[in-house]
Each structure stands twice: as C-alpha cells, then as structure tokens.
Amino acid sequence: MYYIYIQESITQRELAEEMSIKEPSVVRLLQKLEYDGLIYRSATNSDKRVKQLELSDKGVKVCLDLMPIAEKFKNDTIAGISKDDLETFKHVLSIMVENTK
User: Fold this and answer.
1) What positions does the domain HTH marR-type occupy (predicted)?
2) Which of 8, 16, 34, 69 might form a disulfide with 26, Cβ 3.0–4.6 angstroms?
C-alpha cells in the first residue's frame, strides 16, 4: 500500500518490481486488498490487460495511520547503528536481492 500511496497510481508490474517479487504473488495480495476495500484496480486506456492501482479513501486512511508506526519501528531497529554501517548493510542487501533474481 505504501508504494501505491507514494506514487498515487502504479501498475501491478511496477509494484512487483518495487517490491522485488514476482507479479503473480502481487496479484494475490492485491485481490485481498481490493476485497477489503483498500485499493481499486482498473484497466489502462492503452492496454486493458494492464491494471492500474490506486488506494481507496479507506486505503489512504489505513496507510496514513500505519506510517508513524512503521517509522517508529524503523527508528527503533536502527538505533545505535552508524550511518556508514547502515549504508554497507543496504549495499550488501541489494546485492543479495539481485542474486536471487
């Protein structure tokens, strides 16, 4: 939901790329979010097979409610770790993610 929120509108394929997961996995997640009334999926004008994603009003509210909790969790987990160490961690993690593709 975060990626949809920050981009306001994104395709299923773009979301899968952002999350570094396969598109079929994203589809199952999106079906649940749509069923719960948190997102809308609609076909694009250029290609009816491509689904554009947008948050519903309920989805925006849930996302805004969760962001401070996620930010606090992030800050708590990186407390006491130097900026250089975090950069090294991010770099190594990105290599690991690339290795799984």
Assistant:
1) 1-98
2) 16
Q: Calculate the alpha carbon distances from 20 to 29, 35, 46, 61, 77 in Å.
A: 14, 23, 25, 25, 22
Integer Cα distance of 21 and 13 in angstroms:
10
Enter the pTM of the model: 0.73
Q: What is the pLDDT of residues 59-91, one digit of tens each?
A: 999 999 999 999 999 999 999 999 999 999 999
Taking alpha carbons only, the member of 43, 59, 52 closest to residue 5 is: 59
* Residue burial 56-89, b: 16+ Cβ < 10 Å; e: rest: eeebbebbeeeeeeeeeeeeeeeeeeeeeeeeee
